[in-house]
Automatic annotation (TrEMBL):
This is YdbS-like PH domain-containing protein. InterPro entries: UCP026631, YdbS-like_PH. The chain crosses the membrane at residues 53-73, 186-208, 233-258, 366-383, 389-410. Keywords: Membrane, Transmembrane, Transmembrane helix. It comes from Gordonia amarae NBRC 15530.
């Protein structure tokens, strides 16, 4: 049994297996900390009552968490597959065929970095994380060489059995984007802060439950409420909302720094894009450019006044939308979009508006929901609070807000056909634009609900092997849908089109046809 975690990858013989780095014995307890935290708390309290019992539990538990997993985990890299064997009682063999490998990601937590190790995750294109093959702890040099060696377009090759340990790494040809401190201004308007707040709240709730702090907090809350008895309720509500928003903003900035500090997106001479990010835990992801079929732009509503957006790739065999850019300025988004897809201006440019019936559908969905919510202030007025004027004001705000959101969704809806791609705008509050390359579209289908048919509208769905695999052009006229599909895929669609338009048969052969 050998451990070549500091050398160049070699093709193993069928019976040749290797162990991971001994540093795995230090990494493993840290990874399991959230799961074994209740046990550690129990040992802590047991140590106060019965030190010898706690010592015995620790002596038994330590090898089970550290030494045994390291001894039971082995791996091999052959010209056909990568395999990892793990487990003692329940043996598990994870296998990734070399010709099915679609992504290789290296991650280094703080413990990894101290020990000079990295974690390698090998993906085969499945949406299930359980299908990934993971090397928990290998040397940093070996992880980099293995990543270059396993990627299908990589230039790195395995070293011969009697050759020197010299890797052939891919070289950077262009840095497409690099983190700048001014990007931090977009962080309070992303979901990272809410996620961080939820994580802190969850950990705090578990900690409070373990140490019975709920009663202490409740007593303190009652005391504060008694002291604030003379303060108007509106002031308390405003102060509370401002405090929550401020805390969310601070946590958003912190989460952004931890996740994206040092972000770098670079193009390499082996035909790959590589993204590296992270302050404490660093992550490096490799994406084959030959598998990119477009890009996805996401402009959150609150981020649009600041001219910021996210950018994702639409790729085959990887994640549905692997990240290309975190929240960043639009000029950086345009530059990366042009570099990756070849068409950046068309991604944010004007799109062809859909019929007026599509606008009516947006309003018929938004306004009734606002009217339903208006029941709350009306019911409050019926019960004596608030006043009738305040209740009517709330109803007016809800209805006007619903109408404004409906109009915004319609303005975001549309499509545009370019020489190389199809741009699709989704009818959402945040602006979502999907740019799909024509050669990445492999089929078409048309869907229409009863409500759409009454308005003469359909949803034209472009099938693709990349990303979400289905991208809908929502609420488009039936005739326009047929023409759009025929313009992009004439060899697929034209044989099924009738010579004359048939307005009442919008679900014709083009609607039923889908290439498999």
């Amino acid at each position: 049994m050998t451990r070549p975690d500091t050398a160049t990858p070699r093709e193993d013989e069928p019976g040749q297996w290797h162990r991971l780095s001994p540093g795995m014995m230090a990494v493993r307890p840290v990874e399991l900390a959230p799961q074994i935290l209740p046990t550690l708390v129990g040992i802590f309290f047991a140590a106060q009552a019965a030190p010898l019992i706690a010592l015995g539990i620790g002596i038994v538990l330590a090898p089970l968490v550290t030494v045994v997993p390291w001894l039971a985990t082995t791996y091999q890299v052959t010209d056909q597959h990568v395999r990892v064997r793990s487990g003692v009682l329940n043996r598990k063999v994870a296998t990734a065929r070399r010709d099915r490998i679609r992504s290789v990601e290296t991650t280094a937590s703080l413990v990894h970095r101290v020990l000079g190790l990295e974690k390698v995750t090998i993906g085969t294109g499945s949406d299930k994380e359980s299908s990934n093959v993971v090397l928990t702890a290998v040397g940093k040099q070996y992880a980099t060489s293995l990543r270059d060696y396993l990627m299908p377009t990589g230039t790195a090759t395995a070293a011969p059995a009697d050759g020197p340990d010299v890797a052939e790494p891919a070289h950077v040809t262009e840095v497409l984007a690099r983190f700048e401190p001014r990007w931090l201004r977009y962080s309070p308007f992303s979901i990272l802060g809410m996620a961080a707040a939820a994580a802190v709240f969850g950990f705090g709730a578990q900690f409070a439950d373990e140490f019975d702090l709920y009663s202490v907090v409740a007593d303190a809350g009652v005391g504060l409420w008694d002291r604030a008895g003379d303060v108007p309720v509106a002031v308390i509500v405003v102060v509370g909302v401002v405090g929550i928003v401020a805390a969310g903003g601070v946590l958003s900035v912190l989460a952004y720094v931890l996740s994206y500090w040092g972000f770098t997106l670079s193009r390499h001479d082996d035909g790959t894009l590589r993204m590296r990010r992270g302050l404490v835990t660093t992550t490096s992801t490799t994406l084959d450019e030959n598998r990119i079929r477009g890009v996805h732009l996401h402009e959150p509503l609150l981020m649009r006044p600041l001219h910021g957006a996210r950018l994702h790739a639409v790729a085959t065999g990887a994640q549905k939308h692997p990240l290309l850019l975190p929240p960043a300025p639009l000029e950086v988004v345009d530059h990366v979009s042009v570099a990756v897809s070849g068409e950046g201006a068309d991604l944010r440019g004007p799109v062809t508006a859909h019929p007026a019936a599509a606008r009516r559908r947006r309003f018929t969905r938004a306004v009734p929901g606002a009217l339903i919510l208006s029941v709350v202030p009306i019911a409050g007025w019926a019960l004596g609070w608030p006043s009738l004027a305040a209740a009517l004001s709330c109803v007016l705000v809800l209805v006007a807000g619903g109408a404004a959101l409906a109009e915004l969704r319609y303005r975001n809806l549309g499509h545009r056909l370019t020489g190389r791609s199809l741009v699709i705008g989704a009818p959402t509050t945040a602006r979502h634009r999907n740019l799909l390359h024509r050669d990445g579209i492999i089929g078409w289908s048309v869907r229409s609900t009863w409500f759409q048919r009454r308005q003469g509208l359909v949803t034209l769905v472009a099938a693709s092997a990349a990303g979400l695999e289905a991208y809908g052009v929502v609420d488009i006229d039936g005739t326009d849908a047929s023409r759009l599909a025929a313009a992009i895929s004439p060899t697929l669609i034209e044989p099924f089109l009738a010579p004359d338009p048939l307005p009442e048969t919008q679900n014709s052969a083009v609607a039923r046809y889908s290439r498999r």
